[in-house]
Each structure stands twice: as C-alpha cells, then as structure tokens.
Amino acid sequence: MEIHIDRKTFLEGIQQVQSVVERKSTSPILSHVLLETKNTLLSLTATDREISIETLLPASIPKPGSITLSAQKLFEILKELPESSVHLSTQENHWVVLKCQNSTFRLAGLPKIEFPELPSVKSNESFELEQKILRDMIAKTSFAISHDPNRNALTGSLFRTDNDGLSMVSTDGHRLAVITKEIPKDSTLKNFEVIIPFKTVMEVKKLCDSSSSTEKREEGGLVNIGFGNNQIIFSKENTTLISRLIDAQFPDYKQVIPKASLYHISMNKEAFHRAVRRVSLLSNEKSRLIKFTISPGLLHLTSFDPELGEAREELPVEYAGDEVVIGFNAKYISEFLSVVEGETLHMEFNDPLSPGLFTSPEEKDFQCVIMPMRV
Amino acid sequence: MWQIQNREREEEPPHFRISASLSSMLRKIIHLDMDAFYASIEQRDNPSLKGQPVIVVMGLDAPHRHGAVATASYEARKFGVHSAMPLAQATRLCPQGIFLPVRLEYYRQVSRQVMEIFSQYTSLIEPVSIDESYLDVTENPRDAVDIAIAIKQEIKSRLNLTATAGVGPNKFIAKLASGMHKPDGLTVVRPHQVQEFLRDLPVESILGVGPVTQRKLNSLKIFTIGQLAAFDRTQLKERFGKLGLQFYDFANGIDLRPVVPARSHMQISRETTLGNRTSMDSIQQILASLAEGIEDHLKKEGHCARTVTVKVRLDNQRQMTRSRTVFGKLQHKEELLKIALPLLEKIDLKGKKIRRIGLSVSNLISLKDPYQPQLFD
User: Fold this and answer.
1) What CATH number should be reported for the domain holding residue B205?
2) In chain B, how long is the greatest CA-to-CA distance?
3) Which of A38, A305, B230, B359 is deepest in the core (most CB within 10 A)?
C-alpha cells in the first residue's frame, strides 16, 4: 500500500475513530486502527468489538492495500507533524514508513487479517434525524445513565418512538432524564425501542459535534440511523458507526413521572443553581444531601456534614402552599440544571417521599425526575 | 483526672468534638471480657456441671473427632485444655472432661442480654466478639471504676455469670488490665499509673507483637514494655515500619483508637417449630407473624433492612435458605412478606414436611442516615 494524504485530513480522521479504540485491551490488534484503500478513498476503522467506526478520507493512492497501526502512536505523530502532505507506504513484514517533509517514521504494523471482522448489519429500518437534534437529545440525558454493571438495562440510553414522538431516556435508578422530539406528521417511521450503550451514546455525540466543514455543522447535517440484528448504525457524511445494543428490559419510566402534583414551586434557574452549588459545598460527601424547606415565597436550602459544618441560603420563589421539607442529592439537581435551558425552573412533587419533577417552561419537551432522599 | 467532663461539648464546633474524643487522656475506657463464656453458660443452666471440667466443642459430631474446643471451663483449663485446641488433643489431656456441643444461637441471646446491661451506662459500645467488648464511658459522669463494678454486679445478679473488667485511659491499657486477673477480676489503671503498669510487662503483651517480632525485639535487648518505651523511636520505625511507631506509642501508653460502636445487630431473625400437620396456608401465616416480630424489632432500633432470608429445616433435618437483596429499604411486615413468600416458594420441598421455619433480615441501615430511595421497585 502506498498513499499520499493531507496531514490535517488524516489527523481529523484519526481523531474521529481513535476514542473507540480500547485502551485497556489485552489484545494488541484492538489498539490498532485499520487503514485500507477503497477506490480513491482511504478508510480508517477502529473497533472494540462492541462499537466499530469507519471514516473515509480523500487521498491519492498510487498503490492500494491495507495495514493496521497503533492508533495512539499514529495520532501522536500526526499531531506533531507540520501542515503538509503525508506519504505512507508499507514494506516487508508489515513495516510502515511514514514521511512528512523532513521527518521519517518507521512503524511496526500488523496485517489486516488479524483485525476483527466488522459485523455485517442488514438494516431493516432506517430514518434520518438532524444531527443538531440528536446531539441535543444526548447532551440533555446522558448524565443520568447508570455506570453500575449490575444494572445492565440502565447502562445505556433508551431510544424509542411512540405517539408522543421520538424520545431519549436515561436513568440510574435515582433520577431520570427524558427528552421527546416531535416526529414530522408525514413520517413513515415505525415504532421502535432500543437501549444504546453509554460509550456508543458518547461516540454518537462526538460524531454529531464533528463535521468536515464548519458550514455543514451550522446548517445541521443529517444523521442516518438504522437498526438490525441487535445492532444500531449511525452514519453521517463519510463516517459510519455500528454498535451492539443492550439486550435488556428498560423499566417502565413513564410510571415514575408525576402526572399531577400537589406542590408547585417556580424560581429563577440561575439563582437556584448558584445556591445549590454553594450549599452543596458542605453537604455530606457521600449522600450529597441538601434539605429544601419551602414556605410561601421562600426556599431555604441547608446542608450539614458532621465533620465539616453547615451551610444555609435562602432564595425567593413563587410558592403559596403550606411549609414543606424535602431532601435531594445536590449532584442530581446540579447536573440537570447544567443542561436545561430557559430562565425559570419549575419543581413539583406530591409529597417529600415521592419523585420530584423538574422542568423549564422554556423547554417543555425535557423533563427530569429525581427521587427525594429520606431525611 | 477521671472526673473531667466537658458538659459544653454539644456547643462546640464538630471538628473540636472529634479531636477531643480522641485525646487519650480525657477518656475512660472499660474492657469487659466474659469468663469462659460458653462453658459458664452451660454450667449455669445445668448445676450438675458446676465445678466440672466442661469443654464446649465446635463440630462435636464431626467424624473422626475433627472438632475443636470453643471454650473450656476454668476447671478444664487446669488440664491444659484451651480454646481452638483440636478435640482429639483435648480428650487426651482431659479424658474425664464433659464435652458439649456449641449452642451458638443461644449464646448470642445471652450476649445480647449482656449488651443491654452495658447500654445502660453508655451508647459507645464496641463488641469485639460475642464475649468481649470495649465501652467508652467518658461521657458518663460516674467514676469509671464505679461503673465497672456496677456492670459486673449486674451481670452476676441478672445473668448469673461473671465478667472480668479492665479500666484504663484507652483501649490498649483497658485490654491489658482486664487480662491481669481472671476470672471475675477488676483491674484499674489510672492515667498516672500507666507508665508503672506497663514497665515490667513482657513486650509480647503488645497487640501485634507475635513470636517473630518478639525475637527481633529481644535481639535488640528489648524484653519489657519499659525497655521498648525507652528505645529510639526513629530506629523502631526503620526496623518495623509504621508498626514500629505503633509499638512505640503503645509502649508509652498512647492509643488513640476510638471505641467504634457496632452499627447495629448484623441481622435480626425469628424462627419457630411447626406442628406435624401444618398446611402451606398456615405456614404463610406463621411467616407473617415472624415478619411482624422483625418489623417491631426494626422499628424499635430505627433500622431498615435490605436483605431478607427464609430458612427452613425439613423433616429429614436438611436445612435450606433462600435470600434476596433489594435496592430499597424494608421495614414493614408487608414489605418483608412481599420478598419472603416468593423465596419460600422457590425452596424445593420434594414432598418433605417443613419442621422449622425462620425469617431473618440483614444488611441493616439506620433510618437516621439520609437515604436515597429508588425510582423503580
């Protein structure tokens, strides 16, 4: 194999696929990226056997072929090279010589034959979604994904359609984030329900972030999403990502979203967030408990740690009911407040032991449910 | 020195409270050790065993006499029998011994009664084992020696058992003190007596000094705690690492380890024997009444459980248990039964009758601690 490729294009391509590569892998081939010529394009492929990503780059190809190289080393080299054309050629025993201006690197490669076969997915169903929307859905829900391997179903985001629209839902069992987008009326999309693993979710977000040109990013390109054989495929421009899905039953999340609430409190979101961040500084490191005492017009936030001390703060709120005390994990509230848009925050619940619903009137399609702590 | 009390402690900032409670000179610690606990209980319950060499054995029914001595009465100890000795050896040393099987569940009950007595004097009780505890009575305005005497008397009058107590300014001294005079002893080491008390004791009395360390210390011409206390601290650190520093502190009567109260009973259980013709329906009712007992106990202690275990003994003497741990917090009878009944159904009875049924909860959490419940069941 022999290729000439622009250094910047090559570097962006490697950056696109590199994070899929398993860093802790015991198998060296999984730390490699596959370089393969496809007509006039250079294909870069990385896999951790669960997620595979392939991106196609324009290159000049005097001699077609394939080779695999350490993704990390290739990335480090390309990062340091000057803005110029890179010449790469394979030699005997899978050695690769990489030249750029006055620099020459001789790298130990591995043959393509050792690289895992990518799953061949016959997509039965596919649809297109604006990458801007997909990115937003992920950014607003991924913080709630569980990292507890004992709760398999919760270690990914639920991605589904029903009469309400297209939803993405994440929960760790203590809090839940759900965002629902309208599906165009003329859509022929059939209802589906899949759980996408956390790592894939983050890769897809990255895929949505990157674009070969700034204009495309701004005008909002489309991502094609397809399913088949317990796999999901995301493709955008020259990049395709295939991932295994989580084969488990996601809990019935709709039942924990309060439908009607007795207590309703509205407040300035930014002021509330700052108060939560301050008071949480003295919350117990493990429980992260903040106590909310809500009385007409006023919210008192307090925290206490037997070894650190205590903090309190008050905040004007819109509330006219009886005084009520409810406790929440500060981290859960703060993580939601970091992603929700709008100036006003609405909090509602039925009693201090039942799930609390947090919403913003300016972003009606996004809800966060947090289970209060018993205090 | 013993009477020092700081009644304003509650008002102090928390960090001060912690450092004050760690200051060894301020504390009053009692180490209580029940005398030949298992054997004494057997002798108490069966007066014909009084004065006899009673040897309580773990695995008495084990084939080839593979059991081991759990506790030997003081009469049996005269023959050289001691705990953890193989049964065969104990039999050789004391052929006239009265060998009894352990009744652990029963001894635990007695242990709980002992704890109840302790709890009248302090809430800072650290059980080391079923028959040994540390008590921090610093906050009790009474003199520590009075408390130790009162506890010993109450154990004698209420439970008809004897305990040996050691009183000192920290755990290390209290434990060494209780080891001085056994059984039914009381040794008091007041703070100003610590140095004198330790001076002539052999180094191997120090916690962590085993035969190997003892040999190394002896080679440095250190035989007594007094000699160890006078040794160069840096050299001890070089030779024994962190442990060397601990030896040095102990030798100088310094031990900052706090008395850490046990969180709670590790487990709460109820069980009962069933009649010959108990139907499955009435078994479920019996389970419900066991659950009620557990609910009462949990409520009294302000606890919730996360694990439920159902235990059955069949008429062929086989015992089977099934457990489940939930993410939530269980306390009410209904919550317990919701877990327990399916567990009972999971036990394959193969046409056998249930002789005995037990319900227990473990993985206990205090209701006082803030707790994050789950969104989903």
Assistant:
1) 1.10.150.20
2) 75
3) B359
